Amino acid sequence: MSPQSLPERGTGLDYDAEEYVHATTSDQLKALANPLRSAILDLLNERAASVTELAAALDRPKGTVGYHVKILEDAGFIKVIRTRQVRAMTEKFYGRVAHTVMFHAIPDTGNKMFMLQEAMEEAVIEEGSALPATTLRHVRMSEGQAIEFWERLLELAIEFAKAPRGGERVYGFLGAMYPTDLPTLPDDEDDEEES
After folding, report:
1. CA–CA separation, 89 vs 81, rounded Å?
2. From CA 153, how far away is CA 62, in angstroms rounded?
3. Structurally, how many domains does the chain consist of?
4. Strand pairing of 98-103 and 89-96?
């Protein structure tokens, strides 16, 4: 795809990506556990970018960003989407393999809720702003019901990730379903008698 045929800013990805990629190996999980690599993946959810563009956006040295791009490429999360000649050099533009990375094991961070910690560290709190907004609920239900809710939440997260780009600020979305050790009441005896 030539630069002239790229969609206007704010219209989404300028390349095709799968819906999901599954992270199953320890190298893939370790690749996800680094905040800089997470930021690179987030930027590539807007459009394909070169290491030079990523380094400028992240305000990090090009060599550092190139190192992390290579780890993400080796882990199978990003790939070269296109190239262009810049003088005697070939500039590579990287894009995500998939919109969403799915994993069922916890990356080696020492913290099972590492994404919550990341969200807490990056959230901007401004007086008078409607966001951030959070809610926390607990419901006793079957594992099957919990999985159904998770699947619906995941669909919403994918819709969020595919939203047209625009505005002046990046917003985060965090969703989770997790088992707890919270107490439960016994079933109501009246309900059992009516059944």
Report:
1. 17
2. 36
3. 1
4. unpaired
Tokens of 167: 């505005």
How many whole angstroms separate alpha carbon 178 and alpha carbon 180?
7
| Whether the predicted pLDDT of 11 surpasses 50 | no
Q: Rounded mean pLDDT of 27-46?
A: 87
DSSP state of 112: T
Q: In which residue are the tokens 């979305």 written?
A: 173
Domain of residue 81: give its range.
3-194
* CATH code assigned at 122: 1.10.10.10
Q: What is the pLDDT of residues 108-166, one digit of tens each?
A: 555 556 677 777 878 888 888 888 888 888 888 999 999 999 889 988 888 887 788 78
DSSP SS3 for 20: strand
Band (pLDDT 50/70/90 cuts) for residue 24 is confident
Cis peptide before 183 (omega within 30 of 0): no
CB 39 within 8 A of CB 57: no
Distance CA(36)–CA(65), nearest Å, equals 8
> Taking the complete model, does pTM exceed 0.70, yes or no?
no
CA distance 33 to 18: 22
Which residues have a Cβ under 8 Å from the Cβ of 67 and sit 6 or more positions away? none
Confidence of residue 190 (pLDDT cuts 50, 70, 90): low
Q: Which of 101, 95, 96 is nearest to 29 (CA)?
A: 101
